[in-house]
Amino acid sequence: MFAKAPVAALVALGVLGTAQPASAETIGCVTTAWKLIGANHKVCVEAFADPKVPGVTCHVSQAKTGGVSGTLGLAQDPSQFSLACRQTGPISLPPKLPREDTVFSEDTSILFKETRVVRLWDEAHNTLVYLAISRKLIDGAPANSISTVPVMPWGGR
């Protein structure tokens, strides 16, 4: 149904989401396969701070496709990633923290595929749960990773 719809129309319909997730800082990349022409296949690690919860930093590693298509930005990266989130300072929860909110999003193909990190609030256990998923507009993807951050005092407090 959506395969022929223009991206602008999908954004207008809210299908691609309107969240303002954090931007990530690339920590580094490691080559996993050498390519004669174009960029090598690699795994890259990026860091981002939760935009609404100060004191939490997440690191996500993702496989990146190389070769000619990867160099030109036309390749579809595999749905292979890992996620680790930790308390890196005093955590300050905003009033009325949403139970679910997108905190990071990165396209993994030229159209309709992304890696997304969603923060879930487990109020009963006073824990922030970060879930990384691979989203495909048409058929979805089961790849996922999870990390939890219990909200605890920081330092001598």
TrEMBL record:
Keywords: Signal
Keyword Transmembrane helix found: no
Keyword Transmembrane helix set for record: no
Pfam families: CreA
N-terminal signal peptide: 1-24
GO CC aspect terms: cytosol
Protein name stated in the entry: CreA family protein
Organism: Rhodocyclus tenuis
